[in-house]
Amino acid sequence: MSKSIIIIGAGIAGLSAGCYGQMNGYQTQIFELHDKPGGLCTSWKRKGYTFDGCIHWLVGSKQGSPMNAIWQELGAAQDRQMVNHNEFMRYRGPEGKDFVLYTNVDQLEQHLKQLAPADVRVSAAFCNAIRRVMVLGQMGEASGLLGRIKMTLKMIPFMLTMTRYRKTTIKEFARRFSDPFLREAFAATFGMEMPDFPIIGLMMTLAWMHNKDAGYPIGGSLEFARAIEKRYLDLGGQIHYKSRVEKILVENNAAVGVRLTDGSEHRADVVISAADGHATIFDMLEGKYVNDTIKGYYDTWPIFQPIIQVSMGVARDLSQEPHSLICALAQPIKIAEKERSLLSLRHFSYDPTMAPAGKSVILTMFMSDHAYWKALAEDQERYEAEKKDIAIKVIKQLEQHYPGITDQVEAVDVATPLTYERYTGNWQGSMEGWMITTETMGMSFGKGMDKTLPGLENFHMIGQWVHPGGGLPPAAESGKKVIGVICEQDGKEFQATSPG
After folding, report:
1. Which residue range(s) make up the domain with 344?
2. Is 39 in the same domain as 135?
3. Residue 94 lies in a domain
4. Residue 427 and residue 394: Cα distance in Å, rounded?
5. Is the model's pLDDT at 150 over the cut of 70?
6. What is the largest CA-CA distance in the chain?
């Protein structure tokens, strides 16, 4: 009889592990607390509009790229139209001046030189670094000694660039420009809300986009997740929705199954948790399998701050407007007790599935504090009043950029950190787990964090809580890798096939 595997969580990591488990002859079943797949990779409908909570760009969108092969195996990329934007994002200063992060590196370099002729050397260094890291998305599988040597040689420029910039934050790099507008614009891209975000992270993103390997999948996040769900079910897997795991069952220091909140117990030879890391370690396993290193992560490492997402359906076609815009506000506004000097806007008019013809979805996000919302929710009236107040303030700001839009708003939805916590169980409502910083950047490459816990057998962890920076590609990769590890332990040759 084939080995049985229980997977906790039907997010992208859990679905990936399930798919590869089924491909390799294991009997898998997934237990998911929500009533749909995807976890944080999701979207929801309001009054005919679809509000998306995840994918803005997806590494692996290019046919033939290494990550695309995984999406193909998971059934998510077949015949899926991808949109490759000309702009990653645009910053608009208080005087109306624009800085554009073009996705074509040559166009970006020319734009930087035009904005700040005195900073040609800094602009060239930035763009040349992007060119050197482009190789990361062009690496295939290395076979044999000669193949590994060739891959190593190709990786040298990337590794040198990584070494040079991994300890430099975006805010620090921005100070290299003498031009005050470019200093302001660079810092605004990520540096204001994430002060320790490394510049190499932005360089890598722009390199993927230049290679047209970080496009947007038409249909959005939930449809993307449902494609992987279908692949898993077609492979013979089982998903139990509305089935929250309360405890991981352990006997003789080996995971043997799970207990649900309804009291039912389910047994398996291996347990894989693709669920929230904190809940897995400290609740489901009662903190019995930790060491000082693991405790240190949860005591000291920064997480991606939870967000407030304000989504609106508007009776206006925004397709001619920049799809991603950061605006410097003439006067700061207070959102959730914090002064905000920037407004980040994004519309989805490039995806016809998001809104009725001639209409658009537009959203804005603010990083916020979980504890603030937790305390506020003790009084439901105050909680709802705060959400309404935020929506009013956002619409007022939108009116300044899109005159007349106030009367065109047809649907409004405000998601808070508690919304994310309720639907995903994520610690403090974080949207992406561990933050990428100058300290944790190196953990995103190579072996990374341990996927097991000390003293516990037949157990693995996958997903964003074992990979700083989170994101869909690491989630899918971790699901594939864990099945590879299990196959190796069982003396089986790992199999990965695409459908059809």
Report:
1. 307-415
2. no
3. no
4. 27
5. no
6. 70
